[in-house]
Amino acid sequence: MSASIAFIGLGNMGGPMAANLVAAGHHVTGFDLVPAALEAAATHGVAIAATAAEAVATADVVITMLPSGRHVLEAYRGGGPGGGLLAAAGAGTLFIESSTIAVDDARAAHALAAEAGHRNIDAPVSGGVIGAIAGTLTFMVGASPADFESARGILETMGRRVVLCGEPGSGQAAKICNNLILGVSMIAVSEAFVLGEKLGLTHQALFDVASAASGQCWALTTNCPVPGPVPASPANRDYQPGFAGALMAKDLGLAVEALHSTGVEAEVGSLAADIYRKFADEGGAGLDFSAIITVIRARSEG
Ligand code: NAD
Predict the structure, then answer these.
(1) Ligand 1 neighbourhood includes 245 CB (under 6 angstroms)
(2) Which residue among 146, 201, 212, 292 is buried most deeply as judged by most CB within 10 Å?
(3) Which residues are in the 6-phosphogluconate dehydrogenase NADP-binding domain (predicted)?
(4) Contact in structure between 132 and 16 (CB atoms under 8 Å)
């Protein structure tokens, strides 16, 4: 069934996600603060609004795909051309929040939406820009069962897997827990390859053993940080992302916030967050996060 959808935030992810909704027959009205993003979306059939409030005024569903929790909360309740979403939407509008934001911010957004008489779910994604273009994203959803059912068809238009993780906030929780595993495991795989190099082990030999043994993981077998064993991994193209170091640093920063707010002691995860933050600040922001191996190797010289 065709829906009237407002799409707020038409950047690297939001632009192609909105285009897929149009291609599926939905009426999509978009808004972004950057004119170039609006122009690009218009070429895919997205109707352009003059303000975010105008975009949501006649929508059944509002999707936000913004940089951070601060942007989401400002868009929900703040002023200016990108704000005022909750006040402008019709009663009972379904807000789908797909940005990657802190669990606490997702819960705050849910509470604000509920207070304003709306429904809200968190539905962050994995799969990157390639998945957004191809419509193969994975959505991790925090929602009541009823709101999940209302959103499911729309999410399936933009993604291949849609997983209900629990109550509001649970989608963001699943996302940061997964990326905590990913960030730490990439560092472990990279340290093992550098140690192997020093011990005279070829990359292929270590790969052949570990990929079929207990060291097996996605960081090794899909996103292998050395060129050769997995031809499609970013290491084979000078670490062009893939999943950028800046995003890994951001997501582990959110994981650390959650570690603090819950009192969980995660020494390795906290250290991994520091390592990626430094990596991103010192030139790795635009590289695939697997380029962390180059830092480990450089530190091991001499
Ligand atoms: P982006 O910076 O390309 O796009 C964000 C857009 O939001 C920008 O165009 C910006 O102008 C716009 N914006 C900010 N405030 C606004 C407002 N009030 N109203 C309208 N537009 C506003 O970022 P992106 O890569 O598309 O990522 C979006 C979100 O998805 C982030 O939370 C990111 O962490 C998450 N994410 C990104 C990827 C990825 O590979 N890029 C993967 C998974 C998740």
Answers:
(1) no
(2) 292
(3) 4-166
(4) yes
31 lines ligand 1 (CB under 6 A): yes
Tens-digit pLDDT profile for the chain (302 aa)? 799 999 999 999 999 999 999 999 999 999 999 999 999 999 999 999 999 999 999 999 999 999 999 999 999 999 999 999 999 999 999 999 999 999 999 999 999 999 999 999 999 999 989 899 999 999 999 999 999 999 999 999 999 999 999 999 999 999 999 999 999 999 999 999 999 999 999 999 999 999 999 999 999 999 999 999 999 999 999 999 989 999 999 999 999 999 999 999 999 999 999 999 999 999 999 999 999 999 999 999 97
25 lines ligand 1 (CB under 6 A): no
What atom in ligand 1 is closest to the CA of residue 244?
40
Q: Determine the distance separating the centroid of ligand 1 and the alpha carbon of 68, expressed in angstroms.
A: 8
Q: Kindly report whether the peptide bond that precedes residue 14 is cis, defined as omega within 30 degrees of 0.
A: no
pTM: 0.95
Question: Domains along the chain?
Answer: 4-167 (3.40.50.720), 173-299 (1.10.1040.10)
The ipTM is 0.99
Which residues have C-beta within 8 Å of that of residue 302, sequence separation ≥ 6?
none
| 175 part of the active site | yes
